[in-house]
Amino acid sequence: MRRWILLAIPAAVVALPILAFVILSLFSRRPSNLGVANGRLAPCPASPNCVATQSGAGEQRMAPLPFHGSPAEAMARLKQTLQGMPRTRIVTADESYLHAEFVSALFRFVDDVEFLIDPEARMIHFRSASRVGYSDLGANRRRMVVILNAFCKQ
Fold first, then answer.
1. Residue 70: phi, psi to the nearest 5?
2. What is the number of other CB atoms lying within 10 angstroms of the CB of residue 141?
3. Cβ 96 vs Cβ 106: under 8 Å
4. What is the pTM of this model?
5. Which residue in 99, 120, 131 sits closest to 25, CA to CA?
6. Is residue 83 scored above 60 in pLDDT?
7. Given phi > 0 = left and psi -120 to 50 = alpha, else beta, which region is 79?
């Protein structure tokens, strides 16, 4: 019996935080501030789990993606790029806006990624933000670099 307790305590110490993360990811809801308001995507929160082209400072800020061809061609390339990525679901897409959800492999955390095509500037603005937690350890920035590189290679 004593041996079983000595084995159960370390297992519980490992399992409880994992279970907490899984429960947290299951109960996360889609944010209400997604979409375009006044021609812009929502600003990043103060937490370091977001990157965007139209808001943020320092590590949160990224440059928009220039595109060639028509806005419709850019949106088609963007959709094709995202559809090739694992654990990705396009939620909403029209001629100038796209919202996708990315699910992490381990804890099933959902990140919301939005794109807004600016046809006059020939740029694609984006915002990538975690739904839960404070830090994402750079996951949103790394994802956007992968997406931008894949988009440019098409």
1. -80, 160
2. 18
3. no
4. 0.83
5. 131
6. yes
7. alpha
